[in-house]
From TrEMBL:
Chain sites annotated for binding substrate: 147, 319
Gene, per the UniProt record: alr
Active-site annotation: 53 (proton acceptor), 266 (proton acceptor)
Pathway listed: Amino-acid biosynthesis; D-alanine biosynthesis; D-alanine from L-alanine: step 1/1
Organism listed in the record: Methylocystis hirsuta
A GO molecular function held by the record: pyridoxal phosphate binding
Name of the featured protein: Alanine racemase
Length: 378
């Protein structure tokens, strides 16, 4: 099935062939490729890369990279050397940056896999230069995050020491790009321009997913979206501009009816106020369902779609199970062996995260290994 086929034809049947499966994660690679094209178009004349760290935000590095390569992406960002080696195994001729930089002692593996570190200190520049033959590197400046990066005050020293390497990119990272009016955005851009002036002939990059939409358009020469590619909303102040990529379903393992006053789950956090039809699904926090989605009488939290009807989580999320109140769902959809939706068109990443008191990035990157995975549009 081609990646350009209509989205309607990519709607999968969630029923797996293996009856032992209790959770299915469907990754729509056509949507992923389309999201990259959307971000590339918004980047104007800048190149559009892709951040594929954390196993492509939990959705699978190899299939995600293949879809992105087929869409036209040629520059990738990962977190560490091990991720970089895995990415290199997928793409022999892609440009792959390692955001960790040069961890002490890791330089030989970076060189062997033809990876480009993002150097965040003067010491890293020196260590990387010592590998010889003016190796390629990104120069990473700290403009306000105070996490990684060379301080702007050391930009002149960085430029001097960088004469012994071959910089291919000058970069920084926003603190609050998802907030269009955050005053720090303008300050960071100004600081970055100051540092970049010392590397005038080197391509520059500052924009993550959300920064692509900032009014200042800090696209420079390369944008590096991540979260938006995988269906996360980079513009929380507006409608999501990208398509959902992950669809998560779980199987109902048991159903029953309980009487008023009956408790559900560990520590009896929830008790029935009426006769209630309940269903237990085969996923839990071991699969990445946040404990924060736990519901008690005072705080409803997580929800699932059962036959198109929203059904709340009840009681504590446990390691392997979540219990739903399916009293309002169609009976034929709330039977043992049927499937419910946890992520998809009806429940987006941001909503699932908000209900659990977390962020969409965590929802995606914690999706567990026990889910059977289907890749569509490959």
């Amino acid at each position: 099935m081609g990646i350009n086929e209509p989205a309607a034809r990519l709607r999968p049947r969630t029923e797996p062939s293996d009856p032992a499966e209790t959770g299915v994660l469907i990754v729509d690679l056509a949507a992923l490729a389309d999201n990259w094209r959307t971000m590339a178009r918004l980047a104007g004349g800048a190149e559009c890369g892709a951040v594929v760290k954390a196993d492509a935000y939990g959705l699978g590095l190899a299939p995600a990279m293949r879809a992105l390569l087929s869409a036209g992406c040629r520059t990738f960002f990962v977190a560490n050397v091990v991720e970089g080696e895995a990415a290199r195994a997928v793409a022999n001729d892609a440009t792959i940056y390692v955001l960790d930089g040069v961890v002490p002692g890791a330089a030989p593996r970076l060189v062997a896999a033809d990876l480009i570190p993002a150097l965040g200190s003067l010491g890293e520049i020196d260590e990387w230069a010592a590998t010889g033959r003016k190796p390629k590197a990104a120069i990473h400046f700290d403009t306000g995050m105070n996490r990684f990066g060379i301080p702007i005050s050391e930009a002149a020293q960085a430029a001097e020491r960088a004469r012994h390497i071959a910089p291919t990119l000058v970069m920084s990272h926003f603190v609050s790009s998802q907030m269009r009016d955050a005053p720090g955005n303008a300050r960071q851009i100004e600081a970055f321009l100051d540092a970049r002036a010392r590397f005038a002939d080197i391509p520059a990059s500052m924009a993550n997913s959300s920064a692509v939409f900032l009014p200042q358009r800090p696209h420079f020469d390369l944008v590096r979206p991540g979260y938006a590619l995988f269906g996360g909303n980079p513009t929380p102040y507006a409608e999501c501009p990208v398509r959902p990529v992950a669809r998560l379903s779980a199987r109902i393992l048991s159903t029953r009816e309980i009487e008023p006053g009956a408790c559900v789950g560990y520590d009896a956090l929830w008790s029935a106020r009426r006769r209630t039809r309940i269903a237990t699904i085969g996923v839990g926090y071991a699969d990445g369902v946040p404990v924060g989605a736990t519901s008690c009488a005072e705080k409803p939290a997580g929800e699932a779609l059962v036959g198109g009807v929203r059904c709340p989580f009840i009681g504590r999320v446990s390691m392997d199970y979540v219990v739903l109140d399916v009293s309002e769902a169609p009976r034929e959809a709330a039977q043992r062996g049927e499937w419910v939706e946890l992520l998809g068109d009806g429940i987006c990443i941001e909503e699932a995260a908000s209900r659990a008191g977390t962020i969409g990035y965590e929802i995606l990157t914690r999706l567990g290994a026990r889910f059977s995975r289907r890749y569509l549009g490959a």
